User: What shape does this take?
Amino acid sequence: MTDIEDKPFRFGVSLFRFTTRDELVDRARQAERLGYDVVCVPDHLGIFAPFPALAVAAQATNRVRLGTFVLNAAFYNPVLLARDAASTDQLSDGRLELGLGTGYAKAEFDAAGIPFPGPGARVDHLGHTVTELRRAFAEARPAPAQHPAPPLLLAGHGDRMLRLAAREADIVGFTGISFTPSGPVLGDAEELAERVEFVREAAGERADELEFNLLVQRVVVTEDRAAALEALAREFEGMSAGMSVEKLGQLPYLLVGTPEEIAEQVRAHRARYGIGYFTVFDDHLTDFAGVLDRLR
Assistant: This one.
């Protein structure tokens, strides 16, 4: 296993709380100025479409990479998706990172008039999309600026999804959330360790080539970590399956404490799980920037 501590951290921010072009430009520039490595845009109905938003972010910035985090593969024809991705990669001078997922919000499938099959069928469709994308990128005009294609991030939690990611992705995203018939459930620290080991075993000889990403659900910068964790325990009560406050405080998805304490949590998570790429939501953009300074 490659020593993950020899590799630099990467930090991303998912931008979704913007309602105008000016807000998007301001946030993308702020993220670049604060030292983030990747500016991402999610893919949900009711917010701006990912590729136009990334094109604006590319024009407004110079250094940060640009990611879809993550596209709902069921919404896209793979050939047309390859054209959009290759064009965005060219127009951003090779800064695109293409994140894909199966989609999980049935209401969005219903609104789009697209059937919502079971989890296994959605993973199969995503696998087909990845295969077709690779073929289409080889023939795309314009071709992607990055050869042979932009880095591919696949994110999920279940066995079939993570097995696909281990086989096909450059970056494996761990969401930490299981979508059950009764609602989403947040996994604990031991479950994440098992999921990481599952991917490494499934990847075989590829394991050391993979980058691991974690989507952080909350960043709370505070001098009173205990009180903040108590508040989070109440907030996540329905998703944490009766998890104790102590166990909640061990979750990599919740970063709580002073900037120094959070930096130590991030280092510990990298040492335990091999995760070196952390993504936060844009409402934590400035709070987490103080942690970045301590981790460079």
